[in-house]
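Write out the 3D structure for:
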Amino acid sequence: MNWKFARKPNSYSPGKILWNRFRSNKPALSGFILLLCFVVASILGYLVTPDQSPQANEQHLELATRKPGFRVKMLRIKNNEKHPDSSLWKKMISGERSGYSEIPISAYRFENLDIVVTEYTGDTVDQSFTSRYSIADVSWAIDHNITPRLDESGNLLAVLMSGETISEPVELIRNRIVEYHVIEKKFLLGTDRFGRDMLSRMILGARVSLSVGLVAVLISLFIGISLGMIAGFFGGRTDQLIMWLISVVWSIPTLLMVIAISLALGKGFWQVFVAIGLTMWVDVARVVRGQVISLREKEYVEATRALGFHPLRIMFKHLLPNVTGPVVVIAAANFASAILMEAGLSFLGIGVQPPIPSWGGMIKDHYGFIIVDKAYLAILPGLAIMLMVLAFMLMGNGLRDATDQAS
């Protein structure tokens, strides 16, 4: 006889039950999916950005403030230097210097051993801005001390930077230039005021915002949980001292304290992490303290004391698992607050410094364009900040509702 056993709903783990309740909340699930898209794009980083140069900082001033969908022809000229290959991991994290220089062009033609290009200066073609490049220099990293020339068979002879001598028919080199070195580049979100690709900088800006939020929240959780646990568990003078510290920090406006810490630590990428993290632990400490006070008189806590367990073991092995629900909810809200603080600091010029792409810095660079027909330059990063903060708030509300139902 075959017996079939069905898993009963009440046999699910607490985590499974919490996930099912969270998943049934459509706004919270939408926020989770939106946040997941931001996280995936941030992790992949330079692997999905059109501009893969470090900090997406490839500038073409003649292409400044072009509208979304703008297309232009580019002539790719091989750099006359050795270009070491980087690993996939290094390229994903910090980008890779291109082995080519790109020049926007409107038209081109071949003359003998040169390619003559009309440089892009706008929507109208100005024939006065022309440049001439050797087709050997375009194709290879050549040694400029030895001028390329035609050999006896009519092939172009050139000496590379590596010392290698190469010889190819002129027509073959021209065809390769047309196929691989004259490309059409499209800027899906247009360019900023320095002619940099907006889409690339938006993607890397998401990485900065999520990194600042993650590190700041981790710092705040470490400080807040530790102080809250100690205050709630020991009580007495210890509790009074920690609550006095919490009250002092609580009385200072958060943004003002972040600015003060940032100025004390100096401008920079890592300084923003520390400055924001050191101001966000108060909420965590207050919540953890209140939860521990309500739990420390429970029977299982009294049993651990009777068995002689060390206070640290009682706090972090028996009490901490029971306060993770509220802490996760407040951590999601603090994550959103950290993103807003980072954007505000970058807008004021005391946060992440150029050329590192930051959404707040992008708004600062382009807020003057709001009154002209290029307002999208400031609206796009502002919309990205709004969507990421909204995603975290929806997730936080969903987690709060799920934990409330569980309790």
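The chain has 15 helices and eight strands.
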